[in-house]
Design a protein that fits this description.
The complex is a heterodimer.
Chain A (H helix, E strand, L loop, with lengths): L2 E3 L4 E5 L4 E3 L2 E3 L4 E8 L5 E7 L5 E3 L5 E5 L4 E6 L8 E9 L9 E2 L3 E6 L1
Chain B lengths: L4 E3 L2 E4 L5 E6 L6 E8 L3 E9 L2 E5 L6 E5 L5 E5 L8 E8 L10 E2 L3 E5 L1
Parallel strand pairs in B: 2-11
Antiparallel strand pairs in B: 1-3, 3-8, 4-5, 4-9, 5-6, 7-8, 9-10, 9-11
The chains are: A mainly beta, B mainly beta.
Chain lengths: 116, 115
């Protein structure tokens, strides 16, 4: 069965410093991978996705993520954090292998706190 | 284009009642998915509809049901409400033009409180 793990409930960084939000996944075949962000009392906003091709994916608001097949990871990164990046971040996976059901499975979420 | 809209935004019900939530997808999107978000369980997939057919279903009891209309608008219904059904219910739409690799666009959610 497909699953996603976000090992950190919260990540704290200082404004201007680089940030990393970790995500690992488990699927039977090759994955479709997504990152979403949720601000308080709002729905989720799409940040970026990995489908195929270049392992480094660039997305909205200066975020990027690197797909690492051997480590089954898809960590979200940003070179310089902003206070306005403070939010709840979700990693999600969809299995495109033989057991693909089309379901999008989300991790538990990581709260990013950027301090001025 | 207008985004995904959900109505109502807030609902308060009592145990045993039933509730219907509505979702209007982005124009042209034929796939609509529903999720339940709670602090304890996180984001859990409820079901997905595509061209009026339920294509996927999560692990929720039969009290949770949904449907999609010919204009792609979707409704979900929860019967015999329980306290544990209190949650933020999110709807998401996708064009599915790129298949399963397409991202979903989420609405603001309906906050359901069961007393």
């Amino acid at each position: 069965a497909q699953s996603v793990a976000q090992p950190e409930d919260q990540v704290n960084v200082a404004e201007g410093n680089p940030l990393t939000v970790k995500c690992t996944y488990s699927v039977s075949g090759n994955p479709y991978l997504f990152w979403y962000v949720q601000y308080p009392n709002r729905g989720l906003q799409f940040l970026l996705k990995y489908i195929t091709g270049d392992n480094l994916v660039k997305g909205s608001y200066g975020f990027e993520a690197e797909f690492n097949k051997s480590q089954t990871s898809f960590h979200l990164k940003k070179p310089s954090a902003l206070v306005s990046d403070s939010a709840l971040y979700f990693c999600a996976v969809r299995d495109r292998g033989p057991s693909n059901t089309g379901k999008l499975i989300f991790g538990q979420g990581t709260t990013l706190q950027v301090k001025p | 284009k207008a985004g995904v809209t959900q109505t109502p935004r807030y609902l308060i019900k009592t145990r045993g009642q039933q509730v219907t939530l509505s979702c209007s997808p982005i124009s042209g999107h034929r796939s609509v998915s529903w999720y339940q978000q709670t602090p304890g369980q996180g984001l859990q997939f409820l079901f997905e509809y595509f061209s009026e057919t339920q294509r996927n279903k999560g692990n929720f009891p039969g009290r949770f049901s949904g449907r999609q209309f010919s204009n792609s608008r979707s409704e979900m219904n929860v019967s015999t409400l329980e306290l544990g059904d209190s949650a933020l219910y999110l709807c998401a739409s996708s064009s599915f033009s790129g298949g399963w690799g397409d991202e979903q666009f989420f609405g603001p959610g309906t906050r359901l409180t069961v007393l």
